[in-house]
Design brief:
Radius of gyration: 16 Å
CATH class: Alpha Beta
Order of helices and strands: HEEHEEHEHHEE
CATH architecture: 3-Layer(aba) Sandwich
Number of domains: 1
Mean pLDDT: 92
Number of helices: 5
Strand order of the largest sheet: 3-2-1-4-5-7-6
Strand content: 15-25%
Structural class: alpha/beta
CATH topology: Rossmann fold
Distance between the termini: 30 Å
Shape: globular
Amino acid sequence: MTRATYNRIARLYDLLDLPFEKSRYGPLRQELWRGVRGCILDAGCGTGRNMAYYPPGSDITGIDLSPAMLARAENRRRRAGLSVPLQEMDVCRMNFPDATFDVVVASFLFCVLPNDAQPAALTEIKRVLKPGGEIRLLEYTWSEDSRRRRIQKLWEPWVEWAYGAGFDRETSRFVREAGYRDIKEKFLFADVIKLIRARK
C-alpha cells in the first residue's frame, strides 16, 4: 500500500509539499540534522528533501520503498553534485549488515508507517546501528490544543489518501518498548511536529 501510494504521488510530491517546505519544514530539517556526523542512513529519503541539510564530509546512504520517489531523489542528488548511494529498500527489512551506521535519520517516515509496522522498523533500525548509535525521528502527532486538533481532523482524510500517513502513530511508545536509551523528545512546531532522539 505504501509503495503504491508513493509511486502514484511521486511526480506531484514536491509540488504538494512546497508550501509546507518553504514555511515550516526547512528549519525543522536543519534542526533534525544539526550535529549529525559519521556513517548515516537517511531512512525513507523520499524525493531527497533532506539532501540540502546533509553534513559535509559524512558517509550518507538514502533508502526508500518507492522507486518513483527514488528517481526524483536521484535527480536531486545529481543536481546537488552529491555522491550519495540511493537504494530501494523497506525499513522493516534492510539488507545492511549489523552495526553499520552511526546515526539513522528519518523525517516523516514513522507517521506513514502504521502502528503495527513500527516495532519491526525500530528493531531493524536498532540492528543496523552501531553500539551507542543514535536515531533521530521527525514526526507529526495529534495536538492537545482543541483548535489545532480540529484543523488536523479536517486534514486527516487528505493526509491518509495522499500520503498514507496519520497523526495517530504511537512512535514515542514504540521507541521506548524497543529498548532504546537516552530518549529525548522536543516539539519543533507547536505541539504538532516532534523530534525524537534516542540511542542504541
